[in-house]
Amino acid sequence: MRAPSEKDVAAGDVLLAVEDVSLSFGGIKAIRDVSFDIRKGEIRAIIGPNGAGKTSMLNVINGFYTPQQGRIRFKGKTRSKMRPYDAARGGIARTFQNVALFRGMTALDNIMAGRTLKMHRGLFWQMLRFGPALREEVEHRRAVEEIIDFLHIEHIRKTPVGRLPYGLQKRVELGRALAMEPDLLLLDEPMAGMNLEEKEDMSRFVLDVNQHFGTTIALIEHDMGVVMDLSDRVVVLEYGRKIADGTPDEVKKDQGVIDAYLGVAH
Amino acid sequence: MFYREAGQYKTSYAADQALFPILQDRIGIAAILLIAFVVVPLFASDFLLNSFLIPILVLSLAAIGLNLLTGYTGLLSLGTGGFMGVGAFACYKLTSIFPDANIVLLIVVSGVASAAVGSVFGLPSLRIKGFYLAVATLAAQFFLSWCFIRIPWLYNYNVSAAIEVPTRTAFGIPVTGPNATSVTRYLVALSIVVAMTWVASNIVRGRIGRTWMAVRDMDIAAELIGIRLYRTKLLAFAISSFYCGVAGAMLAFLWLGAAESESFNINQSFLILFMVIIGGLGSIMGSFFGAMLIWGLPIVLRAAPEFFGVTVRAATVEHLQFMVVGALIIFFLIVEPHGLARLWQIAKQKLRVWPFPY
């Protein structure tokens, strides 16, 4: 556990700001006028009941959906529309609620695929796999091995990920995102479906990533214990609206949040 | 016992990523290459070369080409025959324009024409996938077949509307046409196939191969880690068609010595697709297995009764052959839907732990 005051998040620079974003699918308004920011180096949680628009929010941030209204400011640059490729280039990595690994590939290849953007040798050298191409391959393998080491998945590096248990798949997926060396890491329910021990491991990895690599993290999570312990600041969504924003302690005491989670007497 | 990797330590990532990291595999592949390059040319009969080995080499190369597209990138194509035809006709035009050029070079260059055509017909893959893409490539197949008949320029205004392969040389030795010996054609085909197989395995093990497989397995996640889908898919189409084009040129110039539109029709596409599926999607080795099974097995079956001294009527042999091959294909698909390459892997794994079950 860690007190938020350890880190000087209050005075931190804003890495990403969501400004008045609205997103709808036909008549369904998934997100309505939501604004919040993510500061450099913090762990920012996005919580809310089912269907609150949390995953849609992540999809907007990494360019998978284009919001009808509002802007997103990332690293000081404002944009209203961005392709996922540009988001990846800009340094936004992402894991998914339902594991989205490349099932036919080994854990090693999955994580190596995360370094695609950093590898530049063209078709000619790839065909020969010699000289510069081999050097590049080995250099990135070394970086990937560090991530494998960090996540303690050495023993499964050559196993096709489709055969791995769920908890390890989640870890490989985190590894693939880390291989991109992102500035902003979006985690969509990293602990979903895990047992206590796996949750503890994953929490430790999230904290370590944040502290050792200095990666800014935005995470969606339903386990309130995990959210309150890990995050520096929490934003709460309900029916696409933002109903609270602040430190875990502030959010916990907020009457609107309590009502949203426990229901209100009619 | 003899196939065990204990004690073979890898001390660098380069060694760990080698094509054949296990010593026994390296010895095995060296032995196969030695037999293929030295022993076979010394002892093989013309029949063995012309109707067994050269066809298998040509079809294996085409199967590798389709496997790069369908097995590795997950894009189903029924245009293989058409793309092979582009290679064959391009090579024919090139030999007419440059009669003195090295024919081996021309065969490989004709793949470029096929790659260009393949990329154009790969454009629909940016929007559609699966069966719908298969239908789009089917259109390519029919359109190209039509071109091979209706554009007389392609076959030099020949009355028969067919390619007659002229005698062409490489380094002064006749490689194609009536004057070329079977051994020469076999060795040229073998060299091209070995070189291009090596290149294909390099591509699929590197960055480009990983982007292909990523697009195949989960295109949304691939996009979010910074893989550009249209580039990746078009590159797969281009390289796949290049391989098919070279295979088509080899089919006309090194195997049959003649070709027409019918040689590259939809049946050819299906034949190659079956080879890829039975051999193993996403496996270079499987492409060879598939070609050997589908082309080689009927020939073996035809020769079998005679070999055992049994006289059977030719028509009966033909029927038996269809039945046995059909039954075997179903058997293999039920036992191992991932193809012969997977069976091969399982066998190797069993051999490693032998005599224990695991």
- Strand order, biggest sheet of chain B? 1-4
CATH architecture of the largest domain in chain A: 3-Layer(aba) Sandwich
Give, in spatial order, the strands making up the sheet with the most strands of chain A.
6-7-8-3-9-10
Oligomer: heterodimer
String of helices and strands of chain B: HHHHHHEEEHHHHEHHHH
Shape of chain B: globular
Task: Report the β-strand fraction of chain A as a percent range.
Answer: 15-25%
CATH fold-level assignment of the largest domain in chain A: Rossmann fold
Largest interface: A-B, 39 and 30 residues
User: Structural class per helix/strand content of chain A?
Assistant: alpha/beta
The proportion of residues in beta strands of chain B is under 5%
* Terminal residue distance of chain A: 37 Å
Mean pLDDT of chain B: 89
How many β-strand runs of chain A?
10
Q: Helix tally of chain A?
A: 10
Determine Rg of chain A (CA atoms, Å).
19 Å
Distance between the termini of chain B: 13 Å
**CATH secondary-structure class of chain B:** Mainly Alpha
User: Major sheet of chain A: size, sense and barrel closure?
Assistant: 6 strands, mixed
Uncertain parts of chain B: none
Please summarize the sheet with the most strands of chain B.
2 strands, antiparallel
What does this structure look like?
The complex is a heterodimer of chains A (266) and B (358). Chain A has 266 residues and is of the alpha/beta class. Chain A folds into two domains: 1-91 and 183-266, Rossmann fold, CATH 3.40.50.300; 101-181, no CATH class. Chain A has ten helices and ten strands. Chain A has a six-stranded mixed β-sheet with strand order 6-7-8-3-9-10, with helices on both faces. Chain A has a four-stranded antiparallel β-sheet with strand order 2-1-4-5, with helices on one face. In chain A, strand 1 and strand 2 form a beta hairpin. In chain A, helix 3 (107-113) packs parallel to helix 6 and helix 5 packs across helix 6 (166-179). The longest helix of chain A is centred in the middle third of the chain and has 19 residues, at 132-150. Residues 1-11 of chain A have low confidence and may be disordered. Chain B has a single domain (44-353), classed as ABC transporter involved in vitamin B12 uptake, BtuC (Orthogonal Bundle), CATH 1.10.3470. Chain B has helices at residues 13-16, 23-43, 46-72, 80-97, 103-122, 131-150, 182-205, 207-217, 219-224, 229-256, 266-279, 284-307, 314-335, 340-353, and strands at residues 162-164, 168-170, 173-176, 258-260. By secondary structure, chain B is mainly α. A two-stranded antiparallel ribbon of chain B has the order 1-4. In chain B, strands 2-3 form a two-stranded antiparallel ribbon. Chain B is built from 14 helices and four strands. Classes of the chains: A alpha/beta (266), B mainly alpha (358). The interface between A and B is medium-sized, with 39 and 30 residues.
